[in-house]
Backbone:
């Protein structure tokens, strides 16, 4: 009983908890796809720390599972597609993650949480069709522009941490695709969300 | 507000550019129907000591490692062919300019595919071993890998990109690393999309084991693995709840 009381003092009586039972969040993110050297953004092809930028809108909901653990599904979608120059192709991203997370509540001043779980990533590449003329080194050539819409679906694993203040939440997710092969790639998602409703 | 503008100025310039297809007029061109693309190498006129099959095997890794593409590229065997074929023929051409029409002082390699319908049915990759200044023996290993990976991109069905960071940018001269741009990743994912709910292995498991000499990874577990992943949080929750209950109300 005494141990249980101490547990409640340390974990249960925090004033500012990150996950909040039955709370709904909405926000925006910077999703850096294929980061940590998977791609390059320079003409020398030097690997880049950041990947390709996407700007999804996030929706998130918290369910309490136990004293301080939560199930917190989150849906992210890019309403503005990542646009190719000349608008010849557009890439949209949908990311759904079903993490389990814990508040790191070591007292009233703690606002941190962490989570991990599986996710689903769906990208759609939609080409505009037609042709374009590009250099081939010694002259120019005509190349066809992709004209179809293609959907890519992968499963991911992610770990995340967040800082909460007031009704705001700033988080960072590290998302792995192709985790069990040499295709492995990591993406970052930096997010800001505002909490609507929910109890303490 | 200034923080927002500074942040956007850091992130926004990193935009993708448009990949194109290795066809002059077919916007519905889809590369090879089979996503396992292989190469046969004719080393007859190649520089002594240059391991062309080894270079190809190393160069194709960058394409094989795209997480959103199912493509699997590999060296198949030696050949004596110098014509379009499937697997794609790779050979060293002494009359590079005469055969390809490309400037032998500027272009170290060239590639073309033979289309049928919206698919490629044959491929041919020429390596320049002429008397010109772009003879492949004059390039260092990193440059050769970049050149070969670029030509493999053409064989896969990609055209040039207008994005200087892309491997498929027409000029590989400034590239010091073999790395794909997001534009290349978009391109190969468009041609060979990965769908882990329709036959492709979950999280890449076993995807690169395409050689018959290698043991195949157990297959058919996609659905089971998906269920395992979805149930993982509940499993962890159950363990934690048991632990917490024991902790709060010890027997």
Residues:
């Amino acid at each position: 009983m005494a141990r249980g009381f101490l547990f409640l003092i340390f974990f249960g009586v925090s004033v500012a908890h990150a996950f909040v039972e039955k709370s709904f969040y909405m926000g925006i993110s910077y999703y850096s796809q294929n980061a940590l050297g998977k791609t390059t953004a320079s003409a020398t092809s030097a690997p880049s720390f950041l990947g390709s930028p996407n700007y999804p809108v996030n929706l998130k909901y918290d369910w309490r599972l136990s004293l301080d653990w939560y199930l917190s599904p989150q849906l992210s979608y890019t309403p503005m597609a990542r646009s190719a120059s000349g608008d010849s192709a557009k890439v949209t991203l949908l990311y759904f993650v079903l993490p389990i997370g814990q508040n790191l509540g070591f007292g009233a001043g703690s606002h941190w949480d962490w989570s991990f779980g599986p996710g689903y990533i769906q990208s759609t590449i939609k080409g505009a069709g037609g042709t374009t003329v590009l250099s081939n080194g010694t002259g120019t050539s005509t190349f066809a522009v992709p004209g179809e819409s293609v959907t890519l679906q992968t499963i991911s694993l992610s770990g995340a941490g967040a800082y909460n203040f007031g009704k705001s939440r700033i988080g960072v997710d590290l998302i792995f695709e192709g985790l069990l092969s040499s295709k492995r790639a990591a993406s970052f998602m930096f997010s800001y969300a505002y909490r609507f409703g929910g109890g303490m | 507000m200034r923080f927002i503008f500074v942040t956007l100025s850091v992130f926004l310039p990193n935009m993708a550019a448009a990949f194109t297809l290795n066809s002059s007029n077919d916007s519905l061109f889809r590369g090879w129907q089979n996503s396992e693309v292989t190469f046969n190498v004719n080393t007859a006129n190649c520089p002594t000591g240059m391991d062309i099959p080894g270079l190809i095997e190393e160069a194709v890794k960058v394409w094989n490692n795209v997480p959103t593409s199912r493509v699997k590229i590999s060296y198949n065997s030696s050949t004596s062919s110098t014509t379009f074929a499937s697997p794609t023929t790779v050979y060293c051409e002494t009359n590079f300019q005469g055969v390809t029409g490309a400037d032998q002082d500027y272009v170290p390699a060239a590639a073309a595919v033979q289309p049928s319908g919206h698919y490629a049915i044959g491929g041919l990759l020429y390596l320049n071993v002429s008397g010109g200044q772009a003879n492949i023996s004059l390039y260092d290993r990193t440059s050769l890998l970049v050149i070969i990976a670029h030509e493999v991109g053409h064989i896969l069905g990609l055209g040039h990109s207008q994005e200087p960071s892309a491997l498929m940018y027409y000029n590989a001269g400034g590239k010091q690393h073999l790395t794909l741009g997001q534009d290349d990743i978009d391109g190969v994912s468009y041609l060979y999309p990965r769908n882990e709910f329709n036959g492709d292995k979950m999280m890449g498991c076993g995807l690169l084991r395409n050689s018959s000499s290698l043991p195949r990874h157990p297959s058919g577990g996609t659905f089971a693995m998906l269920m395992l992943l979805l149930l993982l949080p509940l499993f962890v929750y159950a363990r934690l709840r048991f632990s917490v209950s024991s902790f709060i109300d010890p027997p």
